[in-house]
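STRUCTURE REQUEST FORM
Protein name: Diguanylate cyclase domain protein
Source organism: Lyngbya aestuarii BL J
Requested output: structure tokens
Priority: standard
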Amino acid sequence: AYKQGGNRYECYQEIWTTKDDDQIALENDLRRALEQNEFQLYYQPKVNLKTGKIIGAEALIRWIHSKRGFVSPAVFIPLAEEIGLIEPIGEWVLRTACRQTKTWHKLGLEMLQIAVNLSGRQFYLPDIRQRVLEILLAEGLPSCCLELELTESFLVEHEDSSIQKLNQLKGLGLQIAIDDFGTGYSSLSYLQQFPFDVLKLDRCFIQNIDQNPKNKIIVEAVIKMAHQLNLKVVAEGVETTAELNVLQQYQCDIIQGYLFSRPIPAQEFQALVESNKSL
Ligand code: C2E
Ligand code: CA
Ligand code: CA
Ligand code: CA
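Status: completed
Returned output:
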């Protein structure tokens, strides 16, 4: 983009203009993505470390853009939050995930649980409890099979109301997981204040844990503490057998990561469960 002979200022301007246009184009495409059926849910298996069996999945949204191909949710979810689209998208994710899981139950895969990510804006909708309940009832999914994953980052500013909200949601009989645990600022006081059921240890603690004595110490301590607080622990981003072995040694409950499987389309996930693949 750097033109010979052009001065710096012009060059920057050109770059920014291009970025702006691209951003606007992406926003416009995102506004149409739902009705154009460009979203898909992928499912990443969650595996019980004791039995080695798949116990369920995390639903992860994919946007298959007609020209750009796969656009990362790390890019478009924050954008959707910003431009007020996260509510319909989040609702679509929740409904699709619940419907799919119910379909699997009907096919005899009875025990499967589904974890769905909830964005901050979704969580703070005044009628979020009602919306979740409506979807569970409409899709016929038992609430105990649904887990909502929240990140601590958006719980921070509104402590009282978030505790109330969490309790309202838990009142439906579903599970609440704290996602990306350890990456925020006040993780420990969160465990004390908020009624979580599941703690998801962020990938940054798991990566190369076998070679990193500090991470080992942290993970061992967090798992012990979580168990004493009656929380189940999910390790995210497990990529190697060496990492797995350490987690096994520390009695982590559930693992998720490329070692077992990447996130995959519904049909592939079903085939994987039916094949009885285990760790
Ligand atoms: P997350 O909730 O922390 O999801 C885990 C991310 O780690 C996923 O990225 C997953 O594909 C990736 N991952 C899983 N195992 C491994 C591994 O072994 N190694 C590595 N390197 N990565 C692994 P993904 O699907 O790109 O999603 C990124 C983020 O976008 C998610 O992070 C979540 O914050 C957000 N997101 C995805 N789907 C949704 C959704 O339906 N709703 C909302 N609100 N956010 C979503
Ligand atoms: Ca998650
Ligand atoms: Ca996570
Ligand atoms: Ca994350």
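Reviewer notes: The radius of gyration is 20 Å. Residues 58, 117, 149, 179 surround calcium ion (ligand 2) (CB under 6 Å).
Form closed.
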